[in-house]
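Bench notes, afternoon.
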Amino acid sequence: MDQLRVIEGIHEIKPDYVEIYLRMFMNAVNELKEQDKETKSLSKDTYKKAIFSGVRYISRSKNDISNYDYLMNRFLLISYLENLMKVLTPRDFMNIFPIDKNYDGARYEMKDYFFTINEIKKIGMDTPIGEKIMEFLWDYQNFKDITLFNLASVSILNKLQKIQGKKSLTEEFAERLGIDTYTKHKEKGGKEYITNDRTGEIQEVKKYRPRYLKPVQ
């Protein structure tokens, strides 16, 4: 009988998309600088390249690092991208980041295609977004790019305010609504506690244990 042999497959190296988007962004920014230096006229196509790659970089790279310089650089990059977006019209924006084809938002009281289109009409399809960029981004329904970009922006700003000893945006919002917030702590022994940030009251976190699990005597 012939002997069977195990043939090892080829291990494909997955591309580092975060690095790719960062490189694309830097190339586009350098291109904008050259255009400004040579002709004082900036190409909208280059704007679009910078915005697309910058948003992809922010939304797909790590935002959970609690290093002040790292977070501040990302915050400045987000501000730079938002300034670039102000030049675009909603039609330009839709060509870069198409609106999600979700049509039942009214039923679930959520953003959807129709909601986004209605908000765009208030600006004008071919009118530059300008200073309305913040409201525009939050009203825009595109989960894989714009929603993740918005969430990254809030997360970064929250962490920066915490590092500076300030209340996070989430805490300020909860305070205005009269909602208590809690901070979770863990001791060396593994016990976890939550502290009410308003009252200072501390409670032990009791982990759920299924009925069929009983402590051994």
